[in-house]
């Protein structure tokens, strides 16, 4: 019986690199109330099953880590669980704390399994990259189907992601919005660059395949038009290259050649995604053409700094507050109020609007100001009460607290759109300091490698652009696959003779 459970645990481990990409579709809706939606996603179901299957091996974890490390790492979910006592949203606090406990247990088990069975790393990497390629293909298909007039019920495109927004679609895959789709591609894209840096190819044909894989994942990240994902990818690439050049992570043999290759792949991927936006714009039932599609994408990604748009489209955008994409306003289904008021269903747009003009002429400055305003309101709310300042409003109650402080500005389902400020508001200064201290302690105890540091840096930067735990479980789970020393990671992934002496 125990052997069967062990095999089931390994099967679930191999399913993880697939499951994370289905972060919102399909989803089981269990209802909603004034404060939150009750949705059950595939990754959350995986977490629950993995917890049950891994319970019989809890003694192995205790022997492997020791009581001290386990207790210290448990302080974060423990404090979050205690905050449910003073939270204004008790149920959400309890559910979120429960997810945190499951995540901690899953991460400890994943690291333990890979430490004791390092040969599992190679097949896990292959599954992870294959899943990323599959979902990336789905993203491109979504764009084509949208232009063909297929409804959102079939394409799964989010509100504001269709061609009616910018004149060309920007996909969200099986995620709730492009922000999360782009975020899901961060780790596999950095992984593909890492393999390329490390020489993970035995011949020229394999090298060309790896170059194309890296190029394809990078171009799909640009295709999402998510600034948070694009900027985070750049941060991750810079960190990866810097780490790989140091003596501590000696995996690059030809540094100048690698730098040139990285720049060329990113630049060509950017050009291809822009070309796709231009072609999609020209093929859409709007007045947009190839050039306007390209210039709009550049204007949006550059935060309005680079403006190459034709003069005839440089005009005030119409009804901006009712058409902002969910990628720019909400990163959680719990923030339903902002989604419903700041986005527009393509079905509800007047026929003339679809045939004549798209909703946006370029950079949506309102999306940035919404995020900044929410962050400012969160900090102001925190400073309004000694309790909020010290122990926080309680887990899951940021929206309720901000709404109570400024009821005329937003509803109780709103989220902060910045994970760091959200933590500061909900857990206070004490909780935030506790989290920082434990994370520093944990990171010092794990085996670090260039890829792990790059992925964590990329994810850490991306948290500036969204908040909302249920749709970002990959931020916690995926790094656990790479908690091993750099030379061992290279050896187990690449299995190349040139690294035997590292």
Largest sheet: 2 strands, antiparallel
Oligomer: single chain
Q: Structural class of the helix and strand makeup?
A: mainly alpha
H and E order: HEEHHHHHHHHHHHHHHHHHHHHHHHH
Gyration radius, rounded: 23 Å
Strand content: under 5%
Helix content: 55-70%
Q: Globular, elongated, flat, extended or rod-shaped: what is the shape?
A: globular
Average pLDDT taken over every residue:
84
> Helical segment tally?
25
Strand order of the largest sheet: 1-2
Q: Care to give the gist of this entry?
A:
Helices cover 63% and strands 2% of the residues. By secondary structure, it is mostly helical.
What does this structure look like?
- The chain has 502 residues and is an all-alpha fold.
- It has one domain (2-499).
- It is 63% helix and 2% strand.
- It has 25 helices and 2 strands.
- The protein has helices at 2-19, 42-54, 58-65, 67-73, 75-82, 90-116, 121-147, 152-155, 163-166, 178-184, 186-198, 204-223, 227-245, 255-283, 290-301, 326-329, 336-342, 351-356, 365-383, 386-390, 398-405, 419-445, 450-462, 474-477, 486-494, and strands at residues 27-32, 37-41.
- A two-stranded antiparallel ribbon has the order 1-2.
- A hairpin with a 4-residue loop joins strand 1 (27-32) and strand 2 (37-41).
- The model is unreliable at 318-354 and 496-502 (pLDDT under 50).
């Amino acid at each position: 019986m125990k052997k069967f459970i062990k095999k089931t645990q390994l099967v679930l481990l191999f399913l993880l690199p697939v499951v994370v990409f289905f972060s919102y579709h399909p989803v089981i809706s269990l209802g909603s109330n004034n404060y939150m939606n009750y949705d059950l996603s595939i990754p959350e179901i995986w977490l629950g099953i993995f917890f049950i299957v891994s319970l019989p091996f809890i003694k192995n974890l205790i022997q492997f880590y020791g009581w001290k490390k386990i207790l210290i790492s448990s302080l974060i979910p423990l404090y979050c669980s205690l905050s449910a006592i003073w939270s204004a949203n008790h149920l959400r606090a309890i559910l979120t704390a429960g997810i945190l406990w499951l995540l901690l247990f899953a991460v400890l088990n994943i690291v333990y399994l890979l430490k004791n069975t390092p040969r599992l790393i190679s097949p896990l990497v292959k599954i992870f990259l294959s899943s990323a390629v599959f979902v990336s293909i789905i993203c491109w298909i979504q764009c084509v189907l949208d232009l063909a007039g297929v409804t959102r019920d079939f394409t799964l495109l989010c509100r504001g992601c269709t061609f009616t927004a910018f004149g060309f679609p920007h996909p969200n895959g099986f995620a709730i919005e492009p922000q999360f789709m782009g975020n899901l591609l961060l780790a596999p894209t950095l992984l593909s660059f890492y393999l390329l840096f490390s020489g993970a190819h035995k011949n020229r044909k394999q090298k060309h395949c790896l170059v194309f894989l890296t190029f394809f994942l990078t171009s799909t990240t640009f295709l999402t038009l998510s600034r948070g994902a694009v900027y985070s990818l750049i941060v991750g690439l810079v960190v990866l290259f810097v780490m790989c050049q140091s003596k501590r992570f000696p995996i690059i043999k030809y540094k100048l050649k690698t730098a040139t290759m990285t720049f060329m792949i990113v630049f060509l991927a950017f050009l291809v995604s822009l070309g796709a936006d231009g072609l999609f714009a020209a093929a859409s039932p709007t007045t947009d053409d190839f050039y306007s599609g390209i210039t709009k994408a550049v204007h949006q990604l550059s935060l309005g700094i680079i403006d190459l748009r034709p003069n005839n489209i440089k005009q005030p955008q119409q009804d901006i507050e009712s058409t902002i994409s969910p990628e720019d306003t909400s990163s959680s289904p719990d923030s339903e109020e902002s989604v419903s008021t700041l986005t527009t269903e393509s079905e509800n747009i007047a026929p003339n609007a679809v045939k004549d003009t798209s909703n946006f002429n370029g950079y949506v400055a309102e999306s940035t100001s919404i995020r900044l305003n929410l962050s400012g309101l969160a900090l102001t709310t925190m400073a309004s009460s000694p309790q909020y300042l010290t122990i926080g409003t309680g887990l899951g109650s940021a929206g309720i607290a901000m709404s109570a402080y400024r009821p005329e500005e937003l509803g109780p389902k709103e989220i902060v759109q910045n994970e760091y400020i959200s933590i500061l508001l909900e857990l206070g200064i004490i909780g935030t300091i506790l989290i920082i201290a434990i994370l520093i302690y944990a990171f010092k105890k794990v085996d670090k490698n260039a890829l792990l540091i790059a992925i964590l840096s990329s994810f850490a930067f991306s948290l500036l652009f969204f908040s909302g735990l249920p749709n970002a479980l990959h931020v916690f789970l995926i790094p656990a696959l790479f908690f091993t020393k750099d030379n061992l990671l290279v050896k187990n992934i690449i299995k190349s003779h040139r690294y035997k002496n590292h």
